[in-house]
Amino acid sequence: MANILSINNLRVRFRTDGAVRAFIDRNQDPYIDAVLDVSLSIERGKTLGLVGESGSGKTTIGRSIIRLVDPAGGTIMFEDEDIGRMSSNRLATLRKDISMMFQDPVASLSPRKTVGSLILEPFKIHGIDQINQNQKARELIEMVGLNEAFLGAYPHQLSGGQARRVGVARALALNPKLVIADEPTAGLDVSVQGEILNLMRRLQVDRGLSYLIITHNLPVIRHLSNHLAIIYLGRVIEIGSTKDIFTNPAHPYTLGLLSAVPQPDPNKRREKLKLEGELPSLSRRPTGCEFHTRCPFAVEKCQQESPIRQEIEPRRFVSCHFPFPLSQVKVQTA
Amino acid sequence: MSNFNNVPVIDISNLSVDFQTQRGDVRALRNVDLTIPHNKTVGVVGESGCGKSTLINSILRLLASNASITSGSIRFLDTNILEMTDPELNDLRGQKISMVFQDPMTALNPVITVGKQMTDILFRDSHSRNAKREKARDMLQMVGIPDAEDRMNDYPHQFSGGMRQRICIAMALMMNPALLIADEPTTALDVTLEAQVIHLLQELKNSFQCSILFVSHNLGLIAELCDEVVVMYAGEVVEQGGVFDLFHSPAHPYTQRLLECDPARIEKSTDELPTISGRVPDLIELPPGCIFSPRCVSKFEPCSTQPPPEFVVNEHHKVRCFLSQNG
After folding, report:
1. Domains identified in chain B and CATH numbers
2. Residue of B47, B219, B269 with shortest CB distance to A243
3. Where are the domains of chain A?
4. Interface contact flag, A260 B194, Cβ < 8 Å
5. Which tens digits make up the pLDDT trace of A300-324?
6. Which of A19, A121, B171, B280 is least surrounded by CB atoms within 10 angstroms?
7. Cα torsion at A181, A182, A184, A188 (round to 10°)?
8. Could you give the CA distance from residue B93 to residue B95 in angstroms, rounded to a whole number?
9. Topology given in CATH for the domain delimited by A3-262+272-319
10. What is the dihedral angle through the alpha carbons of B261, B264, B267, B269, rounded to the nearest 10 degrees?
11. Looking at the DSSP assignment, which residues form a beta bridge with residue B51?
12. In this prediction, does ipTM exceed 0.95?
């Protein structure tokens, strides 16, 4: 099985203090690691879900794949090239092959441009002018299930779902191979959410696209992805097939996330919360296993030693000293 | 409030609200009936544009200037809110009815410390500044802010999103209101924090003996928190009832479809998620008959000609749908 993208030991750092501040504070290392030792891969034509709380670094991973942020270490192999070492010329053409759907659909569209010119913008940016513009715009808008009449509309005239569809049309305009979708359903109603996901799925089958979907919406990612990577404090703590993770979470954090999803059934009300507290600060990472501060099962070993990544079944990795044995935990997820 | 234990906190009957626009009158709410009993949590669920916000703004009399209330009444305990004078309204807002908004960052003032913002709410009280500060500190502790004493000197940006929403809840409860309105209070939060905030609301409701009007489009949260549920569609209440009735035996096709569409409820992994076909109707030119009929899969003879009256399924469970006509 060929991977379209494989990331190895990716590290992304952000500077926290300027040179002067760092000198005054005698801070030798004024950086935080937003992403640390992340390894994951996306199979061609498949979908990988990236799940974690806000601030866990999932968007940063997505942005480093198209080099909107520069990695500090590790490799990002797209087909046979390392994205981290690409020249700026090559990067410009790379962004035809990897496109991004941004988080806020309305904010990512310029308010002064019509939908028609927004959809044709990718062609302009990449200097592709040998196309019949009107026909192309019509093709694209129909592909995402909107009427031609929308080509003359401005972004403020669109509903959230329609703006999303325009975002999909823009992302797919240049026939990319990989699409990175950052929270594709945030802020949408349940009925509209289904429409967008069905559209994305249909286009994936038609065009053989690979997806990286960044989200914290677990019920949605369950139906949309083949594989899942759970991110905590910039590290992958569990990775495997979506089905296995949902039926048998091995990491206590994964279990906590899954059981935090409210079930639309008053008989399934939760008496006790599995996951208390909040994400610790990246500038003061906990010792040992970084999840031990919130883990209900933590013992002394967890505070001192960092867990190593272990393969508990083929292609299923988890970083925990005491992962749940397979097929013992039963989560109440519908 | 002990005298009012049997009187509903809010009793809305036959409320209709129009907005005057250049294209014509938008009939944003039509004949809405809703009661919030004492010490109960009532959930309002519906998609964007169904009138949830208009409903809240009517209760607080915060409607835009082009809105007019064309019929109905909103009773708060024993008084009609629609007949209140401005000083009476000032007394009501923030003191007897308070509100938690969607986005805690925009609800808090970024240039004033949290402690100051919290004590400012107590401007009606004649207590000393120290007493007010103590009360604010106690409230912050109650909502789970660690080191409350020190953190009162911090500004909103120094708190995380979850903490900010806790602060907003603490502020809303400072005056011991009879009703707390929560407008999608967890949309800006992660699932883990969302669960914590919902848990907090449950605990606080019991210790403060207040009623909660909880507005959300997340069916899971409604099921978790509410005693009674009101389903709104395009400006109408289409179904209302106890939370068990509504989730286990929904009577209105819209409620049924809404529940089917929730990905959290779909047991098997599926390639094709269910959707509700069609769009919410234009509220300027309303279709004759049932408002949901253009999108309804089980419509029949009377649906497209006459609006359905309210049918009673059981004492607390009411639905506007001809399917329930014969019991």
Report:
1. 2-96+175-242 (3.40.50.300)
2. B269
3. 3-262+272-319
4. yes
5. 999 999 999 999 988 899 999 999 8
6. A19
7. -170
8. 5
9. Rossmann fold (3.40.50)
10. 80
11. none
12. no
